[in-house]
Amino acid sequence: MRTLSLFCLTAFFLFSGFCGISSAALEAGGVQLDLTGHMVGFISLIIFLLAYAVVMVEEVTHLRKSKPVLLAAGLIWGLIGFVYASNGIDHVAEAAIRHNILEYAELLLFLLVAMTFINAMDERLVFEVLRVRLVGAGYSFRKLFWITGALAFFISPVADNLTTALLMCAVVMAIGKEDNRFVCLSCINIVVAANAGGAFSPFGDITTLMVWQKGLVQFHEFLTLFLPSAVNWLVPAIIMSFAVPPKYPKATVENLHLKRGALVIIGLFLWTIITAVSFHNFLQLPPMVGMMAGLSLLKLYGYYLNRTHNHNGPSAFGEEEQIGDVVPFDIFRKVARAEWDTLLFFYGVILCVGGLGFMGYLAMASQIMYLDWGPTTANIAVGLLSAVVDNIPVMFAVLTMLPDMSQGQWLLVALTAGTGGSLLSIGSAAGVALMGQARGKYTFFSHLKWSPVIALGYAAAIYVHFLVNSSLFRIG
Predict the structure, then answer these.
(1) Which of 322-331, 373-382, 400-409 has the lowest mean pLDDT?
(2) Could you tell me if 280 and 195 lie in one domain?
(3) What does each C-alpha distance from 402 to 103, 356, 357, 374 come to in angstroms?
(4) Which residues of 397-431 are buried (b: 16+ CB within 10 A; e: fewer)?
(5) pLDDT at 228 (0 to 100)
(6) Host domain of residue 1
(7) What is the pTM of this model?
(8) What's the mean pLDDT when you consider all of the chain?
(9) Helix intervals (H) in 177-261
(10) What are phi and psi of 183, to 5 degrees?
(11) Statement: residue 475 has pLDDT above 70
């Protein structure tokens, strides 16, 4: 990557003179410059595409995805800054990048609180107890196929779809690790269900969160996507269920209890969600303000758990302190366990896409997609693109374009961007994670075999959205 960076910078300095900083594309005079026809724009596009190519082969190279996009963001904005400084235009690029950083800061603080709560519940064994109880229930493979899919669909709107998928995959692996067919079909079902469930809630996926925080769709309006999302999952699930082997796994017995304070932390998380929604809907404040207020309650309760750590035995809420639980609850450890690589990846993506948009490329793309193609075709294409490219930069690009669309179209792009990633195993974080967790059993090609069925669910979901939400497609 260092060689690539030096090459791009060298190419810029060599060719900027030939392309002419004062060409027709650079209308100097203290305003935003159109760099789409300038060498700086071409180099920035190459940098971003190369960086994203490195991200897509993360499973092969084991290079964390944040590293190439962070470098690309720095290079792109460095080139932008050089052009504007060379033309004597002050503060325009600075104001633009500060706007991108503000958008990232709101997303970062929101996700940091959500991840901290999820980590706290994980440490209090909430998810592990759920796994143990499902494993020991003695259900058939087919019934477990439906239970894990349904749980993935209904948990992902509250927790993120990645955490939900990993939890359900752990259940599937614990129960049927000897039956590769059951594991494979269940993993596909979980990925589709988790992505579909995340589409009808701002908390279920980064793309829906960005749309909500932008104020384009209100919290309760996402619920209109429940039926289309359910169809997106149920159509392929019904077809795949006939291929699940009609067997019963060996029942296992494992005694595990929630740690002290687990139920209170769940309650605090739900209260935090209510606070974030209320701040946004009724006080017109960013949702992350409510999330940070909720984090303060978790920190205060963590203080209480620490002060009463030596009080063993059942608590007032029925949980038990686990034998061997010698480490007190530490809120800062939960913050440290947040997916920092993912959070830094978001920073790189937002600044890269923001830089390309500042150059004029997103306006060009918006002209082609939303005016020439039309919003329906464009939004369906966004979902198909998200099967190959991560849906976060795709959605951020759409939000940066900010096309004039009806409420129904904004809900459509939230639906397609959230569920389109299910078409391929590499199309969502849930799919990539499960390929690692169920290595050898759930693979790219095993998922690809069922892609036509998943595509049928994708098309059916879009049709149902137009059918049940037709009144939302009127502008004005």
Answers:
(1) 322-331
(2) yes
(3) 14, 15, 11, 14
(4) bbbbbebebebbbbbbbbbbbbbbbbbbbbbbbbb
(5) 96
(6) 1-90
(7) 0.72
(8) 81
(9) 180-197, 206-213, 226-241
(10) -65, -45
(11) no
Question: What is the structure's pLDDT at 114?
Answer: 80
Is the distance from CB of 116 to CB of 343 less than 8 angstroms?
no
| Contact call for residues 442 and 216 (beta carbons, < 8 A) | no
- Say whether both 191 and 291 belong to one domain: yes
Pick from 340, 367, 388: which residue ends a domain? Answer: 340
Residue position matching structure tokens 């596909």 = 188
What does the alpha-carbon distance between residue 144 and residue 186 come to, in Å, rounded to a whole number? 8
For residues 428 and 161, the answer to whether their CB atoms sit within 8 Å is yes
Query: Same domain, yes or no, for 44 and 187?
Result: no
Same domain, 78 and 167: no
pLDDT of residue 237: 96
- Using the predicted structure, report yes or no on whether residue 383 has a pLDDT greater than 70: yes
Sign of CA dihedral 353, 358, 360, 366: positive
Helix (H) or strand (E) holding 36: none
- What are phi and psi for residue 285, nearest 5 degrees? -110, 155
Q: Which pLDDT does position 103 carry in this prediction?
A: 80
